[in-house]
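Troubleshooting log. The previous structure file for this entry was overwritten by mistake, so regenerating from the original sequence record. Sequence copied from the archived sheet and checked twice against the printout by T.R.
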Amino acid sequence: MQNSSYAHYLPELHNTIQNSYHISIRKNLHITTAYTIIISKIYFKKGEYAMRRECRFYIFIVFIALLSLSILAGCAKPPTQEVERAEKAIADAKQKEADLYARDEFRKAEETLKKATELIAVKKYKEAKAAAEESANSALMAVSLVEMNKAAMKEEAEKMVPEIQQSLDEIKSLAAAAIKKKAAINKEEIQGAIGKFELDIVSVKDQLQEQKIRGAYDQLIALKEQLKGQKEGLSAVLEKKQEAKK
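Regenerated output below.
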């Protein structure tokens, strides 16, 4: 019979706990404040719960409810540790040159960490935690790719050096022919460009020797495009001069 009298109060008790908790969360109150609100409502609302013999039964229910709320509150905390781990992983990755030799993964790590902080700002802590963990994993992946990518880049750069030197030699020949044939070119400008190209090739070789592979590689790519443009320009001038003779 007593159980039926307990059941009479269960729906109201459930609603009291649930409503009080949601009010506290919406107002961003600490979880202990939520406890205080819930207990005060149960014990003092019209004196119904505190005055009955069944009080122990309700206290037990409240204890279980508050324990559940504690678990929920623990899950609702900002993922501070995960964000700190991601920040450290990114800093370590940069120190190991992942930003130079594993750019895609490193950029992904930075962007995902930024996303995590944005999610924290709008209190989406579960998604923020996942993003921070993904950021740390991307940073670790970037580090694991550094040595392999660096070695591949060095190999490609070393193959490009003789190709660049050959292109420069061709430009020298074209420039000499253009000067000899008195083609419409700026002699000082061409000679200045050739001198700069020679210095750039020396710089590339020095960087490769010093293991500054990314800098050497990027400079070679730029040189390749510049030499191509210079070669095409000189070839066009010589062709024009040849046609004028006809």
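The mean pLDDT is 80. Archived copy saved in two places this time.
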